Amino acid sequence: MSVTPQQPIGIFDSGIGGLTVAHAIKKLLPNEDMIYFGDTAHLPYGDKSEAAIQAYSVRIANILLKKGCKVIVIACNSASSAAYELLKEYVSKDTHIINVIDPMVALVAREFQGKNVGLIGTKRTVQSGVYNRKIEEANKGITLHSLATPLLAPMIEEGFFNNQISHEIIAQYLSDPALADIEALILACTHYPLIKKEIDQYYKGSMKILDSSEVVAQALYAHLKSKNLLNTQAGSTDHFLVSDYTESFETSARMFFHDAVQLEKHHLWE
Ligand code: DGL
Fold it and tell me: Which are the catalytic amino acids?
C-alpha cells in the first residue's frame, strides 16, 4: 500500500517529554495531522530494561501503524537508544522511523568540533553509550562527558519545575565533576526542555544548551519533502492517546496545545 501526504504523523514518548518535540513539529508543519502516544502507564522509561522498552515501543508502533501513520517519530531518547534499530526492522519499508538522537549528533558534529560537550539523560540513554558511539563515528574530535540524571524526568512529569526543589536537584546534578569544563550541554531527554530555563539560570546564561526538538522537526520536514509526503492541505487534527490517564499529562498537553486536547485512553495490549 502506498503512503499518501494526508496520512498522520505518529509521535511517542513515555509521557509529556515528547510534547516538546510534537510542539516543534506542529510549529514547522502546521498542516500535518498528528497522533501522539504517551505511555504514561509505563513511565519512566529511563529506569527500564532495554527489553521492556523494546516491547512497549513495538506495541506503540503497532497502534500508530494501525491508525495509518506515514512516519513514526520516537520522541524519547530512552526509546530511541533501546528500540530504534528494532523498530526500523519491524515496520514495513514504507514507514519511516525518526529518532531524536541522530539529528542531535549531526548538530553537535557540525558545530562543536574538537570541543568538550556534556550530556544529561536517563540511565537507559547514558548506559546505552549510543551518543558516545555516534559522536565517535562522526570523528570530529568531540569529547562527550555524560551524566545520568534519573530524578529529572519523574520530577518534571509530576509538574515539579521552577520551584525550590527542582532548583536544588538541578544544581546538585549540574555541579557534578563529570560536567566540569564543558562548552555545551546536550539535553538528551525530551522532558528536559521544560527545565531549560532553570538549567540556563544555573549556568547564568553562559552555557550553550542543546535541545533536540527543532532539529528533529527539521529532520522530519526534510524526510517528508524528499518523499513528496508533505501535507499541503490547510487545517489539521491532533489526537492524544495515553496508556493511563494522568492529570499531569492533560495539564501539560493543554499547556502546549491549548484546549484542543482531548485525551483518549489506549492500552498497549489491546
Ligand atoms: N522523555 C524520555 C527520554 O527522552 C523518557 C524519560 C523517562 O520516561 O524516563 O528519555
Answer: 76, 189
Task: List the beta bridge partners of residue 185.
Answer: 118, 209
Q: Hey, do 9-99+214-265 and 102-212 end up sharing a CATH topology, with the first three levels equal? A: yes
Domain boundaries, the chain: 9-99+214-265, 102-212
Ligand 1 centroid–CA 121 distance in Å is 8
Pocket of ligand 1 (CB under 6 A): 13-14, 17, 43-46, 76-78, 122, 125, 153, 189-191
- Cα gap 140→113, rounded to integer Å: 5
Give distance in angstroms: CA of 232 to centre of ligand 1.
32
Q: Pick from 101, 191, 212 the residue to mutate for probing ligand 1's pocket: most ligand atoms within 8 Å of its CB.
A: 191
- Best substitution site from 13, 60, 244 to test ligand 1's pocket, by max atoms within 8 Å of Cβ? 13
C-alpha of residue 14 to centroid of ligand 1, in Å: 6
Chain segment 42-88, per-residue pLDDT in tens? 999 999 999 999 999 999 999 999 999 999 999 999 999 999 999 99
User: Is 102-212 in CATH node 3.40.50.2000?
Assistant: no
pLDDT tens per residue, range 175-208: 999 999 999 999 999 999 999 999 999 999 999 9
Instruction: Give the pLDDT confidence of 7-39 residue by residue, as tens digits.
Output: 999 999 999 999 999 999 999 999 999 999 999
- State the fold for domain 9-99+214-265: Rossmann fold (3.40.50)
